[in-house]
Amino acid sequence: MTFTLIAINIVAFFLEQRDPNLLIGLLALWPPSPAVAADEPVFHFWQLLTYSALHANLTHLLFNMFGLYVFGREVERTIGHLRVAALYVASVVSGALVQIAVSFASTHSYPTIGASAGVFGLLVSYAILFPHRRVVLLFPPIPMPAWVFATGYGVLELFMGASGEEADVAHFAHIGGMLGAIALMAYWWRSRHHSWID
């Protein structure tokens, strides 16, 4: 499933290059607005999922696919391909919902794109499953336990989102992705008598 998700993102990226304005207008996550001009993009319910398949540039795509590959494979080996797909979708949708909620308090109206919410959901799932496994930062290359890595990333995203730094980055979608994955993992834990695996 991890490789299928990566393939979907890569194919979507190349399709996006053919007509970016059309796909971003139709598939990116646009904040709901009560009144827009006839030619302006508007929110559609499918954007809660489709925004995750679009990326701003090749670097954006590569970083997200690297995270999806690193964390997705290990999570999938532990909980199976169906559950990793459910985790990814739940993270993407919850990331979208949090981003929309935050957009109501913001004066900015710009689209959200990228698989980051899904990747952050897999990151926190990895940290829950393997809390003491070592993860190495890319810059600088510092090893740390997975739970420290995920917690630190979550705190950093919250700080950057609240401070308004990098306003073009959907920090709250990242946080929403983590929250969605945590909620689904907790549900599975309780419903399956403290077991991640069927």
Automatic annotation (TrEMBL):
Gene3D superfamilies, A to Z: Rhomboid-like (1.20.1540.10)
Keyword tRNA processing (UniProt): no
A Pfam family assignment: Rhomboid
Parts of the chain that traverse the membrane: 53-72, 84-104, 110-130, 142-163, 169-189
Compartments in which it is found: Membrane
Main location: membrane
Presence of the UniProt keyword Protease in the record: yes
Membrane topology (UniProt): Multi-pass membrane protein
GO cellular component: membrane
UniProt superkingdom: Bacteria
Similarity-based family: Belongs to the peptidase S54 family.
Protein name: Membrane associated serine protease, rhomboid family
